[in-house]
Amino acid sequence: MAKVLTSRSENYSQWYNDLVMKADLAENSAVRGCMIIKPYGYAIWENMQAELDKMFKDTGHQNAYFPLLIPKSFLSKEADHVEGFAKECAVVTHYRLKNDPNGRGVVVDPDARLEEELIIRPTSETIIWNTYRNWIQSYRDLPILCNQWANVMRWEMRTRLFLRTAEFLWQEGHTAHATKEEALQETEQMINVYGDFAENFMAVPVLKGHKTESERFAGALDTYCIEALMQDGKALQAGTSHFLGQNFAKAFDVKFANKEGKEDYVWATSWGVSTRLMGALIMAHSDDNGLVLPPKLAPIQVVIVPIYRKAEELEKIAAKIDPIVAKLKSMGISVKFDDSDNRKPGWKFAEYELKGVPVRLAIGNRDLENGTIELARRDTLSKETLPIDGIEEVIEKLLEEIQANIFQKALDFRAEKTTKVDSYDEFKELLETKTGFFLAHWDGTAETEEQIKNETKATIRCIPFDAEEEEGVCMLTGKPSKRRVVFAKAY
Amino acid sequence: MAKVLTSRSENYSQWYNDLVMKADLAENSAVRGCMIIKPYGYAIWENMQAELDKMFKDTGHQNAYFPLLIPKSFLSKEADHVEGFAKECAVVTHYRLKNDPNGRGVVVDPDARLEEELIIRPTSETIIWNTYRNWIQSYRDLPILCNQWANVMRWEMRTRLFLRTAEFLWQEGHTAHATKEEALQETEQMINVYGDFAENFMAVPVLKGHKTESERFAGALDTYCIEALMQDGKALQAGTSHFLGQNFAKAFDVKFANKEGKEDYVWATSWGVSTRLMGALIMAHSDDNGLVLPPKLAPIQVVIVPIYRKAEELEKIAAKIDPIVAKLKSMGISVKFDDSDNRKPGWKFAEYELKGVPVRLAIGNRDLENGTIELARRDTLSKETLPIDGIEEVIEKLLEEIQANIFQKALDFRAEKTTKVDSYDEFKELLETKTGFFLAHWDGTAETEEQIKNETKATIRCIPFDAEEEEGVCMLTGKPSKRRVVFAKAY
User: Are A273 and A303 members of one domain?
Assistant: First the structure.
């Protein structure tokens, strides 16, 4: 069978694009930079959403919905925020079309110009804090713990499916607190939620830490992030949680009376993950045959392919398989018995491999006679023939094993690709040859960070929460440094 | 306690607005016509979404996501569609802001003008059928059964929370079929899904039928609808399912090779319900004390309010209540034990009444001694004192009873407000005095429909599927008619 994907070693970037398209995850649309998420890709995203939503609710958050459009003037109210977000965004200037007087379709009606232009939200801090002003009078109204699942738009020039698109889907949490401590605690809680989700569901190990000042969210006092490592040795920022201090409360005049009756500005956080996680999921685990999905997020966990020639043979197989399907479903395992007759088994094998289904069973005449079934694992590509009796329990255990194995593999890969470097020359060389995460000393200045970025394209991904105190000197300037930070080239 | 709501008899419209605001369902935003759905309102919408999504998946549909923005030229491709949707819509003309040279915030960058303007989707037939062209080659690619949950925008001049807003949330199903019969079957299946949902979950009885030609979706050959009756005697269209024939396939050149190898255009349907359902839910059941929610959609089904003075009393009550809460949760019943100490029980009673919680329990010292608990029903406002032992089973049965009772009440109301009329004078009079649904003969012409609408503001809500064959004459023109249609004033 011809390979449907470019191999990773040949062209990693092309492999990714091929995979996203061929596995029916997403495609480009007629609108520049906007993607179409196809049903199979969306089913994975829905599984992610369901788990994250549960984690948000378990930590006391509620969902709400705020408007898509933001008055232009709102963006200017927080000085840093406007610099970060007002620049590349979609601007609504009119609210009506009319028939073209020359008879060529429709044209914008010049009489329907908005007094103030509206921006399609690139993020919702401004409209939400403008709303919170009316929701908050006293400490009794706090905390507010809201999340929204929404589409947002940032007019990106170079786009890639899932990784960087003009429109993307995400969730954005926006919380309001009476004290700085509580807001900081929330910021930390949510980066931990993201970390747990990435590791336990996506099977993607992540580093947790602070962003440097220059990489912070526009308007934040601190940004925490989770950083994952892709198979090409590049880092991917998978989620961020921001401590916003009182910046947005001051910009939108949101004050509350505390228990002592004194007025103060409200403390804020915001945090989000997006369909970018799909990119991380795909690139962390998949191989030259296609997707490799962690069982906990796979839309189909088990596929069963019958091998037969005549209708009677299929009937006999179905009689054996139907109760197995029912039992697997009752165990909460999603299973598909693909008895469609318009494709050959070989085609089906390749298709489900491409789509990353964790476990594939195949059963034919011989198996029926022997009471066996063939089981193939997507993660290791290994096959074995097993007794059909009790196969459900074997599968249940195997799904857990696959989940753990995929995570361990990614963890080993990251360990192998994490290098301590102390010289800038070594750093530059290894960045090209070995790639991955580099732990190095940095003098803490934005100038040095900028110079390294300009010279190597590597950025500081984070200052890890668990970085050990260690006396050292900045690999570029030789100035003193107290701990190593994580450098990498990044998506 | 002062009434927080205007009464329905005093001013129905004001009552509705009061209720939506005071029960924390939604509020207006800083952007004209765009609402903020508050956490409590959104929780109801999430319950609706969950049930509908399950029903869609049970009937073989998959979710996907298509772009927010639509190229202006797409709207012109289907002649009827452009007339219906191109007129009042939000138009994106630029993709960048820049700092105001005069130092006053940001302004639109005139250099960042789009070559072709983009429209925020008012509905997605055009962008979806433009996509389906690439997905469909042969009958093997059919049917395509996609749904998307999304925000859409129609620039309404007069807006009302949930009922008519510029931006609203909805789902839109878009299916593609090889045959006309299959597409018609799908159109019917989905209006039945909506009808089942309205009646079995929202407890709102609905009429199912065809829209007249002039009320059809722009681009459809037939539109099926469900129509509900509100307490003020006005109708509300709660969901529609459209048979689109081959109109969009022709407009976007979507052909397939059938089993015989002959090319044909693909057959289409689309169907949707929106946050407008929230308006229907609110107006169908609620009273002058607040919301009345059907248990199947209530975010909190049972609230328990402790009556106590001292901390020790609360402790004793909590010790009795905690296992009841645990048991109710294990039975799948959502329950809140409101032991907050910053509000008095009377305030809590009024608050949960306002928010429509179906069952309220109250328990104090005396109850503890007697082994009793006070139970109040939101739908009937009746109270009784019951033994606390076995209260969980009582509640489980009661929730079913309340669900059934709310539906029956709405059904009785509709029966009472449904009138057969044969004379136009009588029709005009009863439309003012009695209101509701009117079953009348109509000659089948758009002119008569239009004249009646202009003279009375009543419209034909639907031609019911189950309308009996009956010889009659049009109440306006006296021309012959074969069946009665349903007239009403409508939202």
Answer: no
A363 and A373 Cβ atoms separated by less than 8 Å: yes
Domain contains B380: yes
B36: distance to nearest CA of chain A, Å?
5
How many folded domains does chain B comprise? 3
Give residue B318's domain range: 302-398
Q: What is the pLDDT of residue A312?
A: 94
Q: What percent of chain B has pLDDT over 70?
A: 100
CA distance B297 to B178: 37
Q: Is residue A384 part of a domain?
A: yes
CB atoms A65 and B37 under 8 Å: yes
Nearest to A90 among B46, B95, B342 (CB): B95
Contact yes or no for A90 and B92 at CB 8 A = yes
Is B91 a domain residue? no
Query: Smallest Cα–Cα separation from A114: which of B33, B26, B169, B161?
Result: B33
Q: Which residues have CB under 8 Å from B218's CB, separation 6+?
A: B80, B81, B82, B83, B84, B85
Nearest CA in chain B to A140: B342
pLDDT band for position A1 (cuts 50, 70, 90): very low
Judge: B127–A96 Cβ closer than 8 Å, yes or no. Answer: no
Contact by Cβ (8 Å): A216, A223: yes
Over residues B87-125, the pLDDT tens digits come to 789 999 999 999 888 877 899 999 999 999 999 999 999
pLDDT in tens, B472-491: 999 999 999 999 999 999 99
Same domain, B245 and B332: no
Residue A412: inside a domain, yes or no? no
Which CATH number goes with the domain that contains B469? 3.30.110.30
Non-local (6+) Cβ contacts of B243 within 8 A are B183, B184, B187, B220, B221, B222, B223, B224, B269
Same domain, B242 and B309: no
Instruction: Answer yes or no: do B96 and A106 touch at CB < 8 A.
Output: no
> Are residue A109 and residue A249 in the same domain, yes or no?
yes
> Residue B334: which of B293, B365, B306 has the closest Cα?
B293
Number of Cβ pairs < 8 A linking chain A and chain B: 188
For β-strands A484-488 and A459-464, DSSP reports them as antiparallel
Q: How far apart are CA A428 and CA A419, in angstroms?
A: 12
Same domain, B464 and B391: no
| pLDDT given for residue A2 in this prediction | 54
Check whether residue B272 and residue B306 sit in a common domain: no
B36, B70, B93 member nearest A65 (Cβ): B36
Residue A59 and residue A102 in one domain: yes
Asked if B269 and B173 touch (Cβ cutoff 8 Å), the reply is yes
Q: Does A266 lie in the same domain as A167? A: yes
| Nearest chain A alpha carbon to B95 | A90
